[in-house]
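FIELD: query
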Amino acid sequence: MLDSRFKTMHNPISTISGTPINSEQSIYLNGFFNGLQQTGMRFADAAPDPALSDVSNENSPEDYCKEEQLKYRTDLNKTFSIVQNVSEQRCEPNVEETFLMKWHGLFYLAPKQDGFMCRLRIPGGYIRSFQIRELAALSKELTSGYIQITTRANFQLRVIPLEHASSVLQRIQSVGLHSKGSGADNIRNITASPAAGIDPTELIDVRPFCLKLAQRIINTDEFYNLPRKFNIAFDGGGAIGVVEDTNDIGVRAVKVNETFKGCIPGVYFLMALGGVTGHKTFASDSGVLIPPDQLLEIIQSIVRIFIENGNRALRKKARLKYLLKDWG
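FIELD: result
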């Protein structure tokens, strides 16, 4: 249930990318956008206003930047053959191949280092002991022998010889880990409260949300090939935060008591949008309270809107932050 002070939009959202949504989804999406309007943001009934826009979101292929044109003419689901060819031939990838291999989590390090870096997907930083043992083993056998831990609770294997690139991915997948979509224009590793599930002060355990969304992403083609990379974080409201406002979408659990009019008392999520620390911007509070059972559907709907409307012509203006700004 949303705060009753939010008004109804004149043109309610009833479809996303031409696909009808049900009445519950429509109610919450319209409430979400109206919440943004209450904070001073204007979405012009979920469509950009060309008269007010200072950045074009023209998505015609002829206007795409070179990276988007490459993606447009390439079946990204068939690019694993590039990885196999590089490994079998022990040949350096060209510029286009280097970009496309990032879809599989492989980053060519030349000229600084002769080999690849492989970035995994470890949603929420949750990993099992047998998976860690296999990462340690393959790191010693196939790479430089050490593993990096990233600020998004992720692992990176560095300096993988060309001939071992394909084998590293096979070994990773054999223990239920993934690297697909960990680079390039995709939804990156989803982060969550570091002590989720064991923090006695948390309002809600966010692990189920994090893992369910991660599984949906890894198995759904539509959540790849975004206009630009996309970060999502879940904070359960406990003692150790996840710094959710540094993400494109960051949600934080809050407790609503009986004195708050318009909501049934309980735990809800506040959503912040448009965080890009590299662009010196923290996410802005949307002003909407989201029930836990609606959270993942709303997040996925926002990602779909970004996929359809994000700027594919100017990579420097392609993050969600700029779409929010452009739409007013």
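FIELD: remark
The chain is about 30% helix and 15% strand.
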